[in-house]
Sequence to fold (524 residues):
Amino acid sequence: MSPLPSGLLGDLDPTSDRAVFRQIADQLREAIDRGRFKEGEKLPSEAELVDHYGVSRMTVRNSFSILQGEGLVHAEHGKGVFVRPRPPVRRLASDRFARRHREQGKSAFIVEADAAGSHPQVDSLEVKEEKATQDISARLGSVRRVLARRRRYLLDGRPVEFATSYLPLDIARGTQIAEPNPGPGGIYARLEELGHRLDHFEEEIRARMPSPAEVKTLRLASGVPVIHLIRTAFDTEGRAVEVCDTVMAADAYVLSYQLPAT
Amino acid sequence: MSPLPSGLLGDLDPTSDRAVFRQIADQLREAIDRGRFKEGEKLPSEAELVDHYGVSRMTVRNSFSILQGEGLVHAEHGKGVFVRPRPPVRRLASDRFARRHREQGKSAFIVEADAAGSHPQVDSLEVKEEKATQDISARLGSVRRVLARRRRYLLDGRPVEFATSYLPLDIARGTQIAEPNPGPGGIYARLEELGHRLDHFEEEIRARMPSPAEVKTLRLASGVPVIHLIRTAFDTEGRAVEVCDTVMAADAYVLSYQLPAT
DNA sequence: CACGCGTACTCGTATAGACGAGTGGGCAAG
DNA sequence: CTTGCCCACTCGTCTATACGAGTACGCGTG
Fold:
């Protein structure tokens, strides 16, 4: 195994009170930031760093685990540790639910993805009636049971979003909303046909680390947070007619809103 | 050292192909989720878990480090590992920049915090002219130099947000906007007085893991992402008159938007 | 040429031990 | 009673070692 090119990474400062594994992480992080290691490029192997710094393997692994936690690098078993490429992001504009878009038939997701030149997919469709959680019930105005529509969105084969829509049974039962395919314009178009003219939406946004289940369904790398968006749709009578709970891979999204200054 | 109460945590499954440290993390996570360990409560010490499961200390520490990465627990040197309390969150409504709020004098942050019964603070105020980054320049319409206003917001002593406003020099230089205290209603009120009647705002939202510098200024615990919000203010002539770059501790915020269905 | 196998290199998991440093309680000296 | 010290317990850091398992590549065989 050949030694590291000199100058690529510095030396440790034994007088520093900064832990060795942090110093190593700092140096690697800086090298990445400066572009000495480019996106997708392989970092020196654990063994090489052990030799270079003269520390034990666990110490090097500790350094890597810091960088992984920051979402800067990812390890591939049998291959090495690589600089994580920043994937191109998808923008969700705040007017994506405007009526004019709805009238064109295709879903917002498909339209946006096509425009960006990506290949969109929707899978794990599940539509069923279930008991409302306390939170959903409160948002929908004290309903006990709801129709839940679950689906996962993929872009070029990569899962990017998992969403569940909840609708009061008295609205959705027996309509096309309860079918796997809600038809052109999606459930919002159906709701309007049913006489629930939409007035406005409320969106709540949080960011947090994913649960293990979310890591699995969204195939998230370590160090990638999720954006949790809860949208409530209100009709012109002020009634909440739908709650949509969406969990997005944060590295795949930029949300974009336009607000009046009035 | 007394053994763990039986039944609190289960046993390992040696036949499972799930790594031991992951099984331990799973059991602890489940116990937390079920409320067997409450917010702020101390988990069993590393030594107790070593005894309970019959594994080495590094294995237990690995488990803890998973949970730390998920933001579920935090360790305190000399004391133990504790379930992280979910701090009360600050809600940011999308109409917080409405003109009617601006006319009352106090800044939005102070008003909201007072209403919530918390003690708000603003510090590390810095106002200076500087060279615009490429991104800021593009957003402001190709300006070279800008006025930058930096400040950090704290709630009950805890830093929750770090924000920088950028304004074109031809607008801000020599005005009260260039003073540390921009006066009642903040810089938006001053901008309108200067003839830049505000028309609308654009907000871009991302979530990601913090840089080490952000961890420091916001005193972030491990496993807490940041929300990165970039707001651009446009006047009625369509000119971008301000860009505000905000980094928020994600565990302290819920953003809330209201969108018309038109 | 095509296939299969071995081998070297990679990261993943786990053990055992050592020392350091922060915290808190008890105990002894004043 | 108060003060100060010691000690037990906690997590933090680091070393050394071992074996497992995924990957890539070259070489030999058919």
Summary: The domain at 20-83 of chain A is CATH 1.10.10.10 (Arc Repressor Mutant, subunit A). The CA atoms of residues 94 and 257 of chain A lie 5 Å apart. Chain A is about 25% helix and 30% strand.
